[in-house]
Amino acid sequence: MFIHGAWMTPLCWEPFARFFEGRGWRTLAPAWPYHDRPVAEQRRAPAAELGGLGAVEILDHYERLIRSLPEPPCLVGHSFGGLWVQLLLGRGLGRAGVAIDSAPPRGVLPLQWSAIRSTAPALLTLAPRRPVSLTLEQFLYAFVHTLSEAAAREAWERQVVPETRRIIFQAAGAPLDPLSPLRVSFAKADRAPLLLVAGARDRIVPAAQNRANYAKYRFSPARTSFREFPDRTHWIIAQDGWEEVAGYVAGWLDDVAG
Question: Which residue stretches of the chain are H helix?
Answer without folding.
Answer: 14-22, 39-44, 55-67, 80-90, 113-123, 136-142, 149-159, 166-173, 207-215, 242-257
